[in-house]
Every structure is written in structure tokens, then in C-alpha cells.
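Sequence in, structure out. Go.
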Amino acid sequence: MKISARNILAGTVVAIKKGPISSIVTLKIAPGVEVVASITSESIASLKLKKGQKASAIIKASSVLIGVD
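Output:
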């Protein structure tokens, strides 16, 4: 598969919190570094995601916001 996104973070699925419509997937991409994504529960089933599975977070965004207190 070829895609245009350049921000691809390979990791391992460490948690899946399933909901009726959307689910939360956590990928460990390095020691102490995790990426959390909200995707549809249908996508969880379609991708056959399971804890311990290798997966990638593909980030394509037109802007990134940073805030501080």
C-alpha cells in the first residue's frame, strides 16, 4: 500500500477500549511513548485489531495545536 502521509509511527497495540460507535486504540511506539487514536468500532473489526498486534499510526493533519497553562 502506498499513501501520501509521511508521518507514520510503527508500534504495537497495547490497549483497545471498545464502544458501540467508536473505540480507543493505544499504540506503544517506543518505551514510554504511546499514541492514542479514536476510530470507529467497525474499523476495529475490519482491521481485526487485537492487543499485541503490530500496527501503525498514520498522521495526516492540516494543523497541529499546542497549548500550555
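Check: The radius of gyration is 13 Å. DSSP finds one helix and four strands in the chain.
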